[in-house]
Amino acid sequence: MTVSEPTRCAFVAVLGAPNAGKSTLVNAFVGTKVSIVSPKVQTTRTRVRGVAMSGNAQIVFIDTPGIFRTAKRRLERAMVAAAWGGAADADRLMLTIDAARGIDDDTRVIIDTLKSASSTGVILVLNKIDLVERSKLLALTESLFNEGIFERVFMISAKSGDGIDDLLACLVESAPEGPWMFPEDEVSDVPQRLLAAELTREKVFLNLHEELPYSITVETERWDERPDGSVRIDQTIYVMRDSQRMIVLGKGGSKIRSIGASARKELESLLERRIHLFLHVTVREQWAEDPSRYNAWGLDYNV
């Protein structure tokens, strides 16, 4: 960037149904992990801002929880509300759709809500295009474009990075002039303690079977900086029942050791320092009804 070039900045909300690849896409834009990822739906529980720099422009991506049709539990309702709140805060909206799934019930709800709000100029991002035959992809694109709310369509693979440079260039080109909202070397607004807890929760998702992860949350209880530059991190994995505690621990503690080892390895890579990670598993039946947890996540308890 030269002195004569004005700075640009835009907030872009990344909307989509659960498991559409939103977090993978935001991580790809930023160039490092700021939002956790797993093959399971509802991995992202709160809004995460990831910052991408390109020349004189700063694009702040708001990674939102997946929006789904039927949100019954308090946490689910709060997650969906957070997603729409992220949309309200943004300069531009970007709807990410799993091209292999197409227009499922959750995506239909999102499109209909955007139409009812008279939204226009939405960027349509068809993700996972490597999993779809070209003829089906073109038919899906035509069907979606006929909805009347999309300004541009991009076909990408967030996992491989195919197509994301063109998408970023479009966002940079349309970003309004204005000051950057984050320092140039900052990649996210997520506090390190929360990011560390989320990374461990990701490893829980990846190590345990389908249902159990949704009954689990992780909190960083202690963060001690050591004179040698390393960090001691103590975290508690909260479950709702004692039977779940035994599953997390695994036979002879094998499962919790596996979770801890993979979490520690990624934390050391992200923080570029040695990590001493200590995990504890505690039963707390009503953790999902604790207002303080919603406040820590930036979620509205009273939705």
TrEMBL record:
NCBIfam families: era, PRK00089.1, small_GTP. Residues 208-285 form the KH type-2 domain. Residues 63-66 are annotated as: G3. GO terms for cellular component: cytosol; plasma membrane. The gene is era. It is a peripheral membrane protein. It comes from Haematospirillum jordaniae. Monomer. Residues 42-46 are annotated as: G2. This is GTPase Era.
